[in-house]
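Task: sequence design from structure.
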């Protein structure tokens, strides 16, 4: 049985003249704040509350973890199919009292980057209550009294056995925020969980090969781990057409192969080497029915922000391409690469 913990919840205000109020489970964060998709919000964790508000001044760059004295603005996004954004009055009234009163929880996830530029993702165990079998960065809830960084590093260690030293912690920075709802679309049922997930980026001094030998995956939470090369990250983020209409060349160019090496763990904690079909990188949220093995939409958003940090050209153009293509793209990945 999972240990009980004091929940850290999201609180919102539209302007600095208002007071912070607990976010409602059934209300989309974007709707409450009156902001558009892919906007910025000021964000700070204070007194076990994640405080969000629209920026008091323009802040158009992803910044490192801010000081304790003033909030810093970060990118925030949700999918166009966000379930709470599309809830009607009848569906809201049908939500059970224990769900409607939950508020919006705070989650953290860490994009761990190896010294050779690979990123770690884990596959959630099939028995997990939310997003089973979906690939995400290590992460989870924030406990009372923790900072976002402390929560992220605790979850990283609990899920993967990996620890970060004090020198590596200095690279820690917030990439962005994601509004996450489960199930991810209304066709799969009424919302049961509503989170703001804060994605952190940390760079280690060890290579992916060395870190693989250090993995001690927790079968209670994950059943596999993979280190994605920059090329594989690029494919996962930019391929716009999904599994049915994928360009086969995108899955074989450079170091991307049809089978990607992964680390598996069984229920007894025994580890083994395995492979992942690269087509999994192209899967998107299905429109009806049950979910499938894929990289979560929020994780792809975080991966896109990581790619943006590596991008040396026009970041505004990169963001525009992302906005148009990550969910319902109309151009091939190769065309996007040419534009970059």
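Answer:
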């Amino acid at each position: 049985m999972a240990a009980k913990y004091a929940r850290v919840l999201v609180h919102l205000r539209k302007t600095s003249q208002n007071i912070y109020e607990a976010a409602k489970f059934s209300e989309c964060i974007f709707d409450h704040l009156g902001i558009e998709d892919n906007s910025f919000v000021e964000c700070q964790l204070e007194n076990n509350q994640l405080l969000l508000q629209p920026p008091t001044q323009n802040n158009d760059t992803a910044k490192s973890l801010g000081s304790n004295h003033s909030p810093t603005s970060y990118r925030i996004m949700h999918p166009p199919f966000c379930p709470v954004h599309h809830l009607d009055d009848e569906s809201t009234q049908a939500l059970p009292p224990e769900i409607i009163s939950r508020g919006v929880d705070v989650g953290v996830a860490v994009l761990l980057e190896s010294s050779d530029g690979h990123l770690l993702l884990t596959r959630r165990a099939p028995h997990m209550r939310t997003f089973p079998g979906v690939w995400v960065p290590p992460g989870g809830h924030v406990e009372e009294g923790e900072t976002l960084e402390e929560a992220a590093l605790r979850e990283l260690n609990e899920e993967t056995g990996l620890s970060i030293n004090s020198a590596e912690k200095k690279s820690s920075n917030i990439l962005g925020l994601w509004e996450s709802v489960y199930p991810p679309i209304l066709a799969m049922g009424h919302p049961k969980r509503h989170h703001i997930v804060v994605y952190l980026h940390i760079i280690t001094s060890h290579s992916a090969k060395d870190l693989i030998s250090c993995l001690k995956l927790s079968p209670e939470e994950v059943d596999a781990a993979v280190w994605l090369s920059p090329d594989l990250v690029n494919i996962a983020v930019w391929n716009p057409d999904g599994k049915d209409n994928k360009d086969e060349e995108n899955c074989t160019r450079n170091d991307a192969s049809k089978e990607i090496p992964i680390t598996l763990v069984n229920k007894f904690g025994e580890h083994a080497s395995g492979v992942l079909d690269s087509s999994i990188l192209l899967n998107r949220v299905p429109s009806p029915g049950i979910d499938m093995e894929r990289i979560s939409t929020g994780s792809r958003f975080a991966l896109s922000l990581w790619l943006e940090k590596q991008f040396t050209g026009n970041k505004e153009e990169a963001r525009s391409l992302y906005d148009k293509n990550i969910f319902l793209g109309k151009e091939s990945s190769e065309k996007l690469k040419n534009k970059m």
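The first strand starts at residue 9 and ends at 12.
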